[in-house]
Write a structure and sequence with these properties.
The complex is a heterodimer of chains A (641) and B (373). By secondary structure, chain A is an alpha+beta fold. Chain A is built from 27 helices and 19 strands. Chain A has three domains: 108 residues, Alpha-Beta Complex (Penicillin-binding protein 2a (Domain 2)); 84 residues, Penicillin-binding protein 2a (Domain 2) (Alpha-Beta Complex); 371 residues, Beta-lactamase (3-Layer(aba) Sandwich), CATH 3.40.710. Chain B is mainly α. Chain B has one domain. Chain B has a three-stranded antiparallel beta sheet, with helices on one face. The chains are: A alpha+beta (641), B mainly alpha (373).
Chain lengths: 641, 373
């Protein structure tokens, strides 16, 4: 027994000593665990804390308010307005079908919108709020609020969205905003950075040009989210910054009035300040409702706009290309005088037609004008006279003068949709058509036909630069105090050097002439064209000295008149609409102390004298009436320095 | 002193005096901490998990007390029966078990879903303690005395591994081996087995299920599959690491609150605790576990008979292994294997097994003077 007891004693000693070994191991392991805890929680704490925050925090951006665009007198022409939206959180909706049925009773929610919504829902997570409707009427909004207790998962929300004037006359200038597309994102780094679903972006016009400046800075909402991304609670909210507001040079009242005059016509009217280059009006007709694009235009309405022959979406003032017709004659005359090709005294006999190089060229006046000098040729717009001087001048010299006056290149840099037009010369034809210049083409270029293509805004700029005495100006549509100040300073400098009979001035203004008298001569002839009997726009003249203007008509043919048609003596009115001539008119006013220039283009409007000049007369009168008012908003040019 | 009046039967009053109250206190403290942790997993709601954890703790604490009051001789005599019943239950799991998340671990016993593999952790220790208590140390290495323990260990280990529950089976294996080590089994045999094990590794790996392989690969490089298999370990490390020195505060653990922590009630309960109470809190919890192990070891030192000694040392070691494996796992020191943290983790069978084990330890303490011949 004793030995057995000894054996057990011995055994317990062994067990205890083995336990000591194990306990030491345990200690080592616990130290390792503590070391690990120390490493994770103390040494690497910052790293893991930021990883934990990255898990836990999600930020959502809030769309900023777009900057407001005002006209010259401060009227908001593109503003933001309260809109009533309906938001839905799908996971909170107990029964979608039932909700859709209820919505169809309460608001305008048809099957098509339902289908679109279901399509959108499939792409989203159930806790992500979706916009069901973003332009509820007040009635719908209040009805929804009334029945809110019966519908779960939806929320009527008051938000802010773009709103344009009811009066659609400035739609082409402003353009419109609409939901950001993939293409918009590709083209703009800023949009990619902002990246808010449902953000509206400018698609054309000034909304596009100014987009990055009016869009503003988005606000921020920081949420704590769970592992599946659901928002648990809001931690922080940072208000966004509204975009920059802009004032433009447009007079909305003139726009509206002009737009009214152009009713049922496919036409463009541009009015420009001949010194500052301010665009007072730039109307294109027919127009469209920018508001319809904000929430996505319906296919039906889009089709109507696209299929309309008068192209309502096109800004004709910038993108419409028209042969200038006789409105080019001041340029041809000036070019001939500047290059000493002709003397104003040169007489040419107009018999109604002339034969050159085996081809017969006609004057618009079938019976002919008889003997003409340069002034009477401008005044009565004698084609034969201009065939003769362009033949002597040649296309290349004519083209240089035309380009100097702003034809053939874009007037603005602000608009994507603007076209540059064509001022042909021998080189241009060789490069673009591939054949050599033919002399006959010089003749028809001399009366603004052939390859010549101009936009209404180019014609307005051209005549403005005659009116201001032959100085180059830079048209502007966005008002900028500093830019305006420097322009005004330059003119004051120029005027004072003229008054002091200084030959040179430091104004920095670029002169477009060689001899000042030539400009004066053309302007004086234009006076005759409007204010003297036999002048082409005599019937549209304003007799009051305050309004008296000087202008040049133009009728641009869009087809070749055959000899047979000539014999039939067809009048424009007898032709089908799309074959009628375009009516053009350019002018400046008041004649004695010019300040504004105008260009009017009426597509298929017949003769310039009857189709375009009467409109110009009305618009000019209104612009001049509003001049005193406009002057109050800017520094007086003629003030003594 | 006591020996003088000790005549084999203790009065109830003597038994109460014989309790190790410090150990009882540690168990209660751990129970309370586990309830707070459970309450936090439910974002501060006294919800299903907290409630059922509380009820279980109360019930099993009572079982612990009852087990303590039984004579140690009773446990000595019941050792083989306990083991055989548990083994039969393990076989029963194989045929009538309840399958959950791809493995068959539970058996439905009218009012409770029992996980016999957890009970086996204790049953094996008591079996081996009984088997070895009288075998002289010199004979332990004798082939005659090796066969039985090897079968006793490997039958449950293989059964559990085939459920499949690799984690629990490894824990059972380690518990068994630690007793054999305690009996004085020669070092060189452990060395040989270790070498053999190394050579058998490739075979073992080829027997692993794909998800088990991926767990090991993921352990070696969690970023391998950050949103899949590596997700648990990455998120667990973020939670612990972001806790810092003092933690994010009770109920403030964003990782668990926002559902980034997987299995936060069970295997990852320490992660949650560590996130909310930081380094200091974790040290405190670790200290409680160390003290419990220390207390059990101390009891093992004070007992008269080798059965009690072997059981206490064996259980202390097994308890240590559970704590160490669970913590190493959530801290990214070991691959993810299913290993609950004693008492803290949600799970009835695990807590029951631990409480029975602690009860037997307490019985050893109360009856420390008892001899077994």
């Amino acid at each position: 027994m004793l030995s057995s007891s000894d054996g057990l004693q011995n055994k317990s000693k062994i067990i205890t000593s083995r336990m000591f070994i194990i306990s030491s191991l345990k200690l080592a392991v616990f130290i390792a665990i503590i070391a690990r805890l120390f490493y994770l929680q103390i040494s690497e704490n910052i790293k893991y804390r930021s990883l934990s925050d990255k898990n836990r925090l999600r930020e959502w951006k809030i769309a900023p308010q777009r900057g407001i665009i005002k006209d010259y007198f401060g009227t908001d022409i593109a503003k933001n307005t309260q809109v009533f939206q309906l938001h839905m959180t799908p996971e909170d909706v107990p029964n979608l079908e039932e909700l859709f049925f209820k919505l169809s009773k309460l608001i305008d929610f048809n099957d098509k919108r339902k289908k679109n919504l279901i399509k959108k829902l499939k792409k989203r997570k159930p806790w992500e709020t979706i916009i069901v409707s973003d332009n509820l009427t007040w009635e719908e909004f209040s009805r929804l609020n009334l029945f809110l207790h019966e519908t779960h998962g939806i929320k009527p929300v008051v938000s802010v969205d773009r709103k344009y004037l009811e009066d659609k006359s400035s739609a082409h200038i402003l353009g419109y905003v609409s939901e950001t597309s993939v293409k918009d994102l590709q083209n703009s780094k800023l949009l990619r950075e902002i990246n808010i679903p449902g953000l509206k972006t400018g698609k054309n016009g000034l909304e596009k040009y100014l987009n990055e400046r009016v869009i503003g800075k988005p606000g921020l909402q920081r949420f704590e989210v769970n592992s599946s991304g659901k928002r648990i609670k809001e931690l922080k909210q940072i208000q966004g910054i509204s975009g920059q507001d802009f004032r433009i040079t447009i007079d909305q009242e003139v726009q509206k009035y002009t737009s009214g005059l152009l009713e049922n016509k496919s036409a463009s009217v541009c009015v420009m300040d001949i010194f500052t280059g301010d665009i007072v009006a730039m109307v294109s007709n027919p127009t469209f409702d920018s508001n319809k694009f904000v929430y996505g235009i319906s296919q039906k309405e889009w089709d109507l706009l696209i299929q309309n022959d008068k192209k309502p979406l096109m800004n004709k003032s910038l993108s419409g290309l028209y042969p200038p017709g006789s409105t080019i004659k001041p340029i041809v005359a000036l070019s001939a005088l500047e290059n000493d090709i002709v003397s104003p005294k040169l007489l040419v006999q107009c018999k109604g037609f002339i034969d050159f190089y085996g081809h017969r060229y006609h004057c618009w006046k079938e019976k002919g004008h008889g003997y003409m000098n340069l002034r009477s040729a401008i005044k009565q717009s004698c084609d034969i006279y201009f065939y003769e001087i362009s033949r002597r001048l040649g296309i290349d010299r004519m083209s240089i003068t035309a380009k100097d006056f702003g034809l053939g290149k874009k007037v603005f840099s602000n608009f994507n949709e603007e076209k540059s037009g064509v001022v042909p010369d021998t080189k241009w034809k060789l490069n673009n058509i591939g054949t050599g210049w033919v002399l006959g083409e010089t003749l028809i270029s001399g009366i603004g036909q052939g390859y010549f293509q101009t936009t209404p805004i180019q014609l307005c700029l051209m005549i403005a630069q005659f009116a201001n005495g032959g100085y180059q100006i830079k048209p502007r549509i966005i008002d900028d105090k500093y830019e305006l100040q420097s322009t005004i300073n330059a003119w004051r400098e120029e005027f004072s050097s003229i008054n002091n009979n200084l030959y040179e001035s430091n104004s920095g203004l670029k002169k477009l002439y060689r001899n000042k008298e030539n400009i004066k001569f053309v302007n004086e002839a234009l006076y005759g064209a409007t204010n003297e009997p036999l002048g082409t726009s005599f019937r549209s003249r304003l007799k009051n000295k305050k309004y008296m203007f000087a202008g040049k008509t133009g009728t641009s043919q869009i087809r070749t008149i055959t000899e047979e048609e000539r014999k039939l003596k067809l009048k424009n009115i007898d032709l089908p609409y799309e074959k009628r001539d375009h009516a053009l008119f350019v002018a400046f006013a008041p004649y004695k102390k010019p300040r504004y220039s105008i260009s009017v283009v009426v597509e298929h409007g017949g003769a310039g004298s009857s189709g375009a000049a009467p409109i110009a007369k009305k618009v000019l009168k209104m612009v001049l009436d509003r001049h005193q008012l406009r002057k109050k908003y800017q520094l007086d040019l003629f003030q003594k320095v | 002193m006591r020996q003088n009046f000790y005549r084999g039967n203790l009065q109830f009053k003597d038994k109460l005096i014989g309790f190790d109250y410090f150990l009882v206190f540690l168990i209660l403290i751990l129970g309370v901490i586990s309830l707070f942790a459970m309450y936090s997993t439910e974002q501060g709601n006294f919800g299903y998990y907290t409630k059922s954890h509380l009820y279980r703790f109360i019930a099993f604490f009572i079982i612990f007390l009852i087990v303590s009051l039984f004579k140690i001789k009773f446990w000595f005599r019941s050792a083989y029966v306990f083991y055989i019943i548990t083994l039969l239950l393990l076989f029963a799991v194989d045929s009538f078990g309840v399958t959950a998340s791809g493995s068959k671990r539970w058996i439905s016993l009218i009012f409770i879903n029992l996980q016999p593999s957890e009970l086996m952790k204790v049953a094996l220790i008591i079996f081996l303690a009984r088997y070895y208590y009288k075998i002289p140390s010199d004979n332990v290495t004798n082939i005659k005395y090796i066969i039985t323990p090897v079968f006793a260990i490997f039958i449950p280990v293989i059964l559990v591994a085939s459920q499949p529950d690799l984690g629990t089976s490894l824990l059972i294996l380690l518990g068994g081996i630690s007793i054999i080590f305690l009996t004085g089994f020669r070092f060189k045999f452990f060395l040989y087995s270790f070498i053999v094990l190394i050579f058998l590794m490739p075979v073992g790996i080829s027997l692993l299920k794909p998800y088990q392989k991926s767990r090991i690969l993921t352990f070696l490089n969690p970023e391998r599959d950050a949103l899949g298999a590596g997700y648990q370990i990455i998120q667990s490390k973020i939670a612990v690491g972001s806790g810092g020195i003092l933690g994010k505060g009770f109920l403030q653990g964003s990782q668990s609150y926002l559902d980034y922590l997987p299995e936060k009630h069970t295997d990852f309960i320490f992660t949650l605790f560590s996130e909310e109470f930081g380094f200091i809190g974790s040290l405190l919890l670790l200290t409680i576990y160390i003290l419990i192990i220390f207390r059990i070891t101390k009891i093992g030192n004070s007992v008269k008979n080798n059965f009690s000694r072997l059981f206490c040392f064996g259980f202390a070691t097994a308890f240590f292994i559970y704590v160490a494996v669970n913590m190493s796992m959530v801290l990214g020191l070991l691959p993810i294997v299913g290993a609950p943290l004693p008492i803290m983790s949600y799970g009835g069978s695990s807590m029951l097994a631990i409480m029975i084990g602690l009860g037997i330890v307490m019985s050893c303490k109360i009856h420390e003077q008892e001899e077994i011949n």
